[in-house]
Amino acid sequence: MARFTDLEETRKYFSNDRFATDNGMVIDDVSEEYAVCSVVLGPGHKNANGGIMGGVIFTLSDFAFAVLANSIHLPTVAQQVSVNFLSAPKGEKLIAKATCRRSGHSSTVINVDVSDETGRDIAQFVGTGFKIYSGK
Predict the structure, then answer these.
(1) Domain count across the chain
(2) Which positions ≥6 away from 71 have C-beta within 8 Å?
């Protein structure tokens, strides 16, 4: 049931999350109660219609979920997730704030609210994480 000791240790661990980090996602803040991740949007995040690809929003949400879930219990993997897209981003940056709704013996439920830097609500993500135990 190891946890990270600080923000830098968390960032170092998640530097191996190559899909998120290679797409510009960063960890801004983390504690046992919440995690905040963000991405500065660029041309590589756009879909064929010129909007931000839904996968970018999902990936940022999933990244914030993973950071918080694994800060609560390491390792934790996603068991079930859902996302509701609320509006298109108008700003240049997306911010995802993950908060723990419930942390039980074998699972954790985490809500992630995604907004842009203008304060516009972009998505709501809910994830259930399964806590893996080594059997020791």
Answers:
(1) 1
(2) 3, 4, 10, 30, 31, 32, 35
Model's pTM, two decimal places?
Answer: 0.95
Give 5-47 pLDDT, tens digit per residue: 899 999 999 999 999 999 999 999 999 899 999 999 999 999 9
Residue 110 domain boundaries: 7-131
3-state per-residue secondary structure call for the chain: CECCCCHHHHHHHHCCCHHHHHCCCEEEEECCCEEEEEEECCHHHECCCCCECHHHHHHHHHHHHHHHHHHHCECEEEEEEEEEECCCCCCCEEEEEEEEEEECCCEEEEEEEEEECCCCEEEEEEEEEEECCCCC
Is the residue at 120 inside a domain? yes
Q: What is the spatial distance between Cα 80 and Cα 105, in angstroms, rounded to a whole number?
A: 17
State phi, psi for 82 to the nearest 5 degrees.
-145, 155
Q: Which residue is associated with the tokens 């500065």?
A: 40
Is residue 136 in a domain?
A: no
Q: Tell me, what CATH number does 105's domain have?
A: 3.10.129.10
